[in-house]
Amino acid sequence: MPKTATQYSRRNFLKTSGGVVLFIGASGILPYLVSCRDTRRMKEEFARHPITAWVQFSEDGQIIIYNPAAEMGQGSMTSLPVIFAEEMDADWARVSVEFSPQEAEIYGSEGWTPGSKLMMTVGSRTTHSYWPVMRKAGAQARYVLLSSAAGHWEVPLSELTTSEGVVYHEKSGRKIEYGQLVPFLKMPEVLPEIDEAQMKKPGEFRLIGKVLPRTEIPEKVNGTALFAQDIRLPGMVYGVLERGNLHGSRPTLTNEAEIVGMDGVLKVVPFDYAIGVIAQTLEQALSAKRKLRIEWGPSPASGFHSQEVFETYASMAGQPERGRVITEAGDVQQAIKTAARTYSADFKNDYVYHAQMEPLNAVIRVAEDLQSAEVWVGSQQGPDTKLGVPGILGIPHEKVEVHLQYLGGGFGRRSMNDFVEECAVLAREVAPLPVKLIWTREDDVAYGAFRPLSLQRLTASVDARGTLTSLSHCVVGDGGNLVASGVTNTHYDIPNQLAEWRGASHGIRLKHWRAVGHGPNKFAIECMLDEIARDQQADPVAFRRKLMAKSPRALATLDKAAEISGWGEPVAEGRAKGVAFVEHGSLGTGVCEISVDRNTGDIRVHHFWIALDAGIPVQPDNIRAQMEGGILMGMSSVLKEQITIVDGRVQQSNFHDYPLLRMQEIPDSIETVILPSGERPEGVGETATPMVAGAIANAFLRLTGKRLRHMPFTPQRVLEALSSS
Length: 725
What we know:
- This protein is of the alpha+beta class.
- It is about 30% helix and about 25% strand.
- Helix 18 crosses helix 19.
- Keywords: Membrane, Transmembrane, Transmembrane helix.
- InterPro entries: Ald_Oxase/Xan_DH_a/b, Ald_Oxase/Xan_DH_a/b_sf, AldOxase/xan_DH_MoCoBD1, AldOxase/xan_DH_MoCoBD2, AldOxase/xan_DH_Mopterin-bd_sf, N-heterocyclic_Hydroxylase, OxRdtase_Mopterin-bd_su_IorB, TAT_signal.
């Protein structure tokens, strides 16, 4: 039975038959308490003030906490409300969670630009950035409850305490549940600022750091969870686009009359890079798409061959002129001149596709007068919380209502709004009919936005004692931060460092892919360290331990990973262990144990161990799940995944020629140890993935004495490495 979208909007999302909404003021606006029955007042307050409604209380004791972040399996639907509930001292058993409206000025956390607010679930920033926001809001909500109880009982607020959704007055032996307080809630004349010192200390946490069931799991298990793909609206029609596989090529449709005459086709809509079709059913739209006769023009990608470009990149890396300097410390050239030994190597990686489970899709309904719109979408949000729709339709920002749904995978791809903007263009053409736009898997592979191909040239030097004295890292590729992130070595004590980026563009669509540039660049850095350690006859862990002497938190992860993996212990014949360290929000060291089939070139990862410092672990069980998922995704990309371009055209089309890691290929075990910490929580979604390539390549080096320097480590490349001199 098809699911139906709930009629949900900023102005009615808090309506209920009873209870109150607690509005925490911003920018000097006074706080408000509004009865949920008073819908007129609620509408007025929403319209007049930038108020933040974080929580709703009901007289039966139920509490709704609003989650401002996307939920794509990473656990934000639990981690952020847990932070709020901890400071509010709520009874977690009575808490439910809903998405907040997509309004950055109200529900955003601190952005990358000082003073800005952002609703964007990317870069492992969600828990870290919302930590102070949710703690303060929860603490203020608790203050309102205490103040109201003090007024109701006519006792000093200082004599009251709270625990698990109950206010206590020890002197009189009285207690009252939060729900029972609803009729007596009053907003204080002044809501105090609550700073870090007034909030709970880690030792006082009841919820944070404990294993709690994820709030969205029951819906996902029983099938009631709504993803954008599930949305069905009355009168909804379907849109598809043919974009080709030559990025940026302009299409010319030669049989428009035939297509328009097909059964169910409502409209043909041309784009600069595609031809769109709107039809009554998805089947009719796809049938019409298959009949399109398109002549494709040239594009900036024409003539580009991805497997031939590395020679050009290597030449660019050898030019004396610097690129854009990312980081510089000391004098690398002087260190090389005085070095006892220098090392240099090139590391390469191919394009990688996001391969998110749920195909890209969106539903948009544009009003008949074209002056407002509603959007149902699974999005990682963005700098524009209305996802580009106001600009497409030429209407004010506040006239677009976004209903965020669960995401069936994002990995950075759903922080790009191209599919939402395409849907807006189609919906405008048939307004007021709602349009569902769907990208097929073939669409997404052929016209994907990939993690960039790049080359990293590393040059290092050591002194007579074997101490690493310099590291130069030159990244060549397209995409700026997409290839040039992850090159700093904050936790390695290397006195002379230089990292630079040299750009090259080929017209291929690019996008952030889980951990962005950390995957290729940490691969290069960690492999270089092992190659140096091997030449210096030093143990790889001992070599890193010396480099981490001034970074105790990083060193603790290295020591713990070595301990739990039995690093110094003998391994089974035909196996070896490799190590890699990554800092991406969290600090983590990974160790893997592998074997290699020397006949087929297949690498098998048997075990993976991770030691992680994530700051205060808000959801430890979910952190472990994130580590496991990150390792498996990393293994898939490192051993399997590869997009190739020939004459500008993407060669892959679906999972038959873009293979992913299979169930029978996963490790026998993945063990994660979370180190205790009192530091502010850090992101964990992108820490595990970048450590995989370095750990596997380093294990391969210890096992075979051969180097793997080009991702993915396909069987062919493994066999070539094994046969190399």
